[in-house]
Design a protein that fits this description.
heterodimer; A: mainly alpha; MetI-like fold; 67% helix; B: alpha/beta; D-Maltodextrin-Binding Protein, domain 2; 2 domains; four-stranded mixed beta sheet; 19 helices; 14% strand
Amino acid sequence: MTVNAPAQTKRKKHPFLRSLRQQRELWLLCIPIIVWVAIFCYYPMYGLLMAFVNYTPGKEIWQCDFVGLKYFSKFVLGKEFPRLLRNTLAMSGLGMTIGFVCPIFFAFMLNELGNLKVKKVVQTASYLPHFISWVVAGAMVTQLLATDGIVNDFLMNAGLIDARVSFLQKGEWYWGLYTVVNIWKGLGWSSIIYLSAMSGVDEELYQAGSIDGLGRLGLAVHITLPTIVPTIVLLWIMGVGNILSAGFDQHLIIGNSLTQKYWDVIDTYSYRYGVQEGYYSMGTAVSLMKSLVGFVLVLITNAIARKASDVALF
Amino acid sequence: MFKKTLALIMALALCLGCVSAMAETNAFGWDVPEETLKISLFFNSGEFSTGEEQEVGMAAMHDYILEHFNVEYDIMTTDGDADEQLNLLLASNTYPDIIVGASTINRQKFVDQGRAQDLTDYLPAMENLNHRMGDMIGLYADENGRTYYLPQYFSNLMDLPDYSAHIRYDEWQEIGSPAIETPEDYFNALNAVYELHPTTAAGEQRYTLGMYSQGLPEYISGYWGLQRGWKVNDDDTLTYWTHTDEGKKMAKYFNDWWRTGTMDPDSFTNTWNDLRTKISQERVIGMIGGWWIGYNAGHEIWSLTDEDWYEEKRFIQVGFKDEDAENAYVTLKNNAGGSWIIVTDKCENVEGVLSWIDFILSDKGIALVNWGMPNEVKSYKNPDETVCIWELNEDGTWKFNDTAKQQLVTETWDYNEEGVFGANTGVYAIMQYQGRFDDGVHCLWGNQMWYSENKWKGIMFENMDGTIFDGTALLFESLTMDEDVTFAKTAVTDAWKQYYPQAVMADSDEAFEAAWAALQEAVEDAGIDVYAAYRTENYQYNLKLMAD
């Protein structure tokens, strides 16, 4: 009598290992990037410990005196904090509202252009400013708006003003100026992602809409807009995470002492004390606090977005 | 016999060895070492940039020093913020052997961490240093008598001003050469010129007064009797200008001026280059700042660009004093230095480095690293020709070149050509003695000699007499600044830069009073009490130190 040996039980492979094997080519492509991220993004994070010690350049972090939350409280309880926070939230708020909407509106306008040549020219011209560095862009702005600049020359010659206007010395105008310049510089580039989302809309939907009696505006509102809502929501969530970042280069170039009350933000403060004065602990504490707040805001916004629209970053 | 021969041969060999080991002394008086002396330094001067002729000169100077002195410079500079760069060098442990021009705060970091060499035992051998400094050398020792740093600049020409007001000489003559003895006289003179010439020849608007760097109130307050922005009280305590009657009087003076509408509207946002452009375009009738700005932006440009330029078309410096001021402390000299040289723990040949520093404090050493390479040097503008600033003979005798002297005295010296001599960037100087040589004539600046032969310098000294004082006790930062003090110092500076212009630009007396109150509040919030306490303690300590 022959007794068949029981069939050997196949060992179940771990899903990750299975994935590793099945997608090895993709993993090979990703590994250098993962290593790069690990080295340049995660490894340096140990430097965050500087925020909790009285760091002196030249000493190792562990050799410095532990001070706990001293620099966090020094910053938050400092006399300058309310002004810094006000300026930061004001300018990033303008960016999250007007600055966020403009590229969407611009994308819609571009999308409606019938003449492809004109569309291409306008689109290309619109994102050229993105490639100009803030040093050049800031210099252009200061030259244009200087007391003896072109804008003043034009207004004087046109009889619109009796005396030259010092645009760059009016602190109350700074937020608006910053927003306008930011929009000018980023409008075209930011609209690209919306345009690419719009280009994915099925033509048949537009045809169906036309048949149902929708005009151009109706098509835009009822077909195009719902299609790009997920893109808008995702970008909004990411934007909320940067709400405490309200520019840096622009302020150092366009701003001056007369408008500092309005342009001094958390990042410029952190640079002034943390980098220029060499108080790296203060700079690190401020940046860490900013990152934590942004991270929490992203989590909250993401949760709200998922509940409200089923669209979420993660 | 054999033993005698052997002894003779050994003695001869010993003598030959000694001769070959003895350094050769060059015409400068420097004992050229057999092994190349490396001078690796960080030049702590931000936004460092050079023109082409300076690049040529610096390279030539590097080779000259290597060839004639067997000293090799390796110079690190930055076109960004120098303190920021130095902090990064310190954090990354990549700083070189010598730091030239460290701030007091950064000096302290090196010393506290044991990264600054103890120079104490080397100092007695530095003959030139001791000769130039005298007793002042003791100022740099700590409480244990050890010295870890030296000043980058020390001593001064006590007749040379730093800051002054300016007026065009020809225009001042045109309005009758009125005496300018008070701030009101200055205001009246500039406005008188403005009434005659409200626009340039090209039809552009002119301004009675232009300023830069937010109006330099700490310096200009000297016209109202304050000393670099501080009121020195009878009990040797210090009060910051924002909380003094004198400071308010100064601000009101400029506010009244502002309200005439004739001041440059960009006075509080101008950088030096912005104002310089306006000056050279003749759009500014008067300005207050460094005494040299009238030269740099005025006739030194006009003499080259204006076909119809005449000698009187230039700015002259004017000194005046508020009637209530004891003195016009416009220029306060800090003879002990405000920036520092540190020989770091990375230097392996401290003795060699200090011997070089000592050499460049000798007459010929000062000439080399400040005037430039001696004898004929190829011209940058006309490569087929040569230029010369000073002459050195093989026997060590030297003199300033007669042609160069004449050009400097008549102010026809071509500063655009000066770079070829290799020294006008200052990078080779390391340490600079800013007083006169023992002959009482020469000094490190070619254009600050032979005043009696220079009409225009004569006018400057006559006008600025009584505005130059020794401010060493007030300005020399001998005590350590802790973190609270440095934060307060930065915050106070930020505060007045924002609020002082608002006071000057106020459009009514009520607005001025409100803006002045806001300035005071801002400075108080910034921590002026902490900063003032430090400055007072430092001042009183210096007074005691210098008395001892």
